[in-house]
Amino acid sequence: MKLKVKKGDTVRILAGKDKGKQGKVLQTFPKSGRVLVEDVNIIQRHTRPTQENPQSRIVKKPAPLAVSNVMLVCPGCNLPTRVGSSRDAQGTASRVCRRCERSID
Ligand SMILES: [Zn+2]
Q1: Residue 49 belongs to what domain range?
Q2: Tens digit of pLDDT for each residue in 60-76?
Q3: CA of 93 to the centre of ligand 1 (A)
Q4: pTM of the predicted protein model
């Protein structure tokens, strides 16, 4: 699955408990169609006490969410937008904002 969102992009969350939030993409998972977004979809992991770590703790960390639940925020018009693609004279594909037609890459 090819994702229209890349690491370092800013995205708006469209669904779930963090709906309406914006965050930076930390990682993408093209195979599962998921993205990891900074400070979004935080889950609590309870760690069991171990020999090295006798205290059980609750670790908060972001969990990946489906790319269909996020929308890319265009750096040009600063709004969530659909992404198109275009090719330049050299045949290199780049992403463009459907609102302002500005190249995103
Ligand atoms: Zn734009």
Answers
A1: 1-73
A2: 999 999 999 999 999 99
A3: 17
A4: 0.84
